[in-house]
């Protein structure tokens, strides 16, 4: 029996999967004008795979019916996706809030017609200029991104900064945060770099230890107190997450005859450039794929509930069970992603 009344869940007033909103993270293309060393989707100028806009619009209609209310655009670089304007207009017509993360290099006057329709816009950063430019592979990346942030802020757009932090860049955060807020960032979202995609080739010392994650969390708490803007950190105390476990009541109570909308069971939902629908993260293990966007309809989602949801539910239950005795600080979504990979390896070992 769920601790959260069904009426509240259906109205979207209760949390779902530790998120207050039901979110589709859309990666319409892997094409990008940069080739960042830590890119989880390994995007660059050579990746031409992209979603068909007709199939994407049809799929978004289905997902809106499944309870998703926010479309978060990422990539690749979303501003190189030619049908972007059509997708934004369609999502807004469905009543969805549309947000975007961009590297900022193409956020110029030509992009204004699309950017002005967004409910929120974040420009990505990795540290102070030397750190940022090294990871992005071009010497002017930081200044161009920071200039775009300032320009968009002066235009009155709701612009924020999304900061991915390597272990060595944690000491840079206070100065970086002050710089970005002074340029007009209305909020900061901060997360540690995850060992996914191209980032797997980085030195192991690029990734945060348990102590580093605790330090990152505390730095973010201090910045929230000092800066006067909202600072969100993807790292949280494990026991704090355990106290919020009712966010997963709908999923944990679901069975194969579940009639809950997908947004109450899987949140966030990720759509890749190939149309794969995955829970939680772009690099989530392929065994947990829900369906494909092409030809998506309610019957395919119900088929997933009958055949695939149980495996995802078991993984989340296991991840939650790890929390009450832990004193660690964790990135919950990365934690679940790594757990998905480890369960596959265990299964392969047992089969071998």
Topology:
Layout: H1 6-11, E1 23-26, H2 53-65, E2 70-73, H3 84-93, E3 97-102, H4 112-115, E4 120-125, H5 129-136, H6 141-154, E5 159-165, H7 173-182, E6 187-192, H8 210-227, E7 230-233, E8 235-237, H9 238-243, H10 249-253, E9 269-271, E10 276-279, E11 291-292, H11 298-307, H12 309-321, E12 329-331, H13 332-351
Parallel strand pairs: 1-2, 1-9, 2-3, 3-4, 4-5, 5-6, 6-7
Antiparallel strand pairs: 8-12, 9-10, 10-11
Helix pairs in contact: 2-3
- Radius of gyration based on Cα positions: 20 Å
CATH topology: TIM Barrel
| DSSP, total strands | 12
- Name the strands of the widest sheet in spatial order: 7-6-5-4-3-2-1-9-10-11
Describe the structure.
The chain is α/β, with parallel strands linked by helices. It has one domain (6-351): TIM Barrel. The chain contains 13 helices and twelve strands. It has helices at 6-11, 53-65, 84-93, 112-115, 129-136, 141-154, 173-182, 210-227, 238-243, 249-253, 298-307, 309-321, 332-351; strands at residues 23-26, 70-73, 97-102, 120-125, 159-165, 187-192, 230-233, 235-237, 269-271, 276-279, 291-292, 329-331. The strands form two sheets. A ten-stranded mixed sheet has the order 7-6-5-4-3-2-1-9-10-11. It has a two-stranded antiparallel ribbon with strand order 8-12. Strand 2, helix 3 (84-93) and strand 3 (97-102) form a beta-alpha-beta unit. The longest helix has 20 residues, at 332-351. The chain is globular and about 55 Å long.
């Amino acid at each position: 029996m769920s601790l959260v009344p069904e009426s509240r869940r259906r109205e979207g007033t209760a949390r779902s999967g530790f998120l207050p909103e039901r979110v589709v993270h859309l990666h319409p293309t892997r094409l990008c004008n940069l080739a960042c060393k830590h890119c989880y989707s390994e995007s660059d100028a050579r990746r031409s795979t992209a979603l068909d806009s007709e199939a994407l619009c049809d799929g978004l209609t289905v997902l809106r019916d499944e309870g998703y209310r926010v479309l978060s655009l990422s990539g690749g670089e979303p501003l190189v996706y030619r049908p972007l304007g059509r997708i934004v207009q369609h999502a807004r017509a469905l009543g969805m809030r549309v947000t975007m993360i961009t590297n900022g290099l193409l956020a110029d006057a030509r992009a204004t017609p699309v950017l002005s329709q967004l409910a929120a816009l974040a420009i990505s950063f990795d540290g102070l200029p030397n750190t940022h430019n090294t990871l992005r592979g071009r010497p002017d990346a930081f200044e161009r991104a920071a200039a775009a942030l300032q320009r968009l802020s002066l235009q009155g757009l709701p612009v924020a900064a999304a900061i991915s932090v390597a272990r060595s860049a944690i000491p840079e955060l206070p100065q970086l945060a002050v710089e970005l807020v002074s340029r007009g960032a209305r909020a900061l979202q901060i997360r540690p770099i995850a060992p996914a995609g191209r980032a797997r080739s980085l030195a192991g010392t690029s990734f945060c230890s348990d102590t580093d994650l605790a330090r990152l969390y505390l730095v973010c708490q201090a910045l929230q107190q000092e800066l006067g803007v909202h600072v969100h950190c993807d790292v949280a105390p494990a026991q704090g997450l355990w106290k919020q476990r009712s966010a997963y009541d709908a999923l944990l109570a679901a069975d194969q005859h579940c009639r809950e909308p997908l947004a109450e069971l899987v949140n966030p939902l990720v759509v890749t450039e190939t149309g794969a629908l995955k829970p939680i993260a772009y690099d989530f293990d392929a065994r947990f794929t829900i369906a494909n966007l092409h030809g998506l309809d309610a019957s395919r989602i119900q088929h997933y509930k009958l055949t695939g949801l149980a495996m995802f539910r078991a993984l989340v239950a296991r991840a939650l069970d790890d929390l009450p005795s832990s004193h660690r600080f964790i990135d919950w979504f990365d934690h679940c992603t790594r757990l998905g990979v480890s369960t596959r390896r265990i299964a392969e070992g047992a089969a071998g």
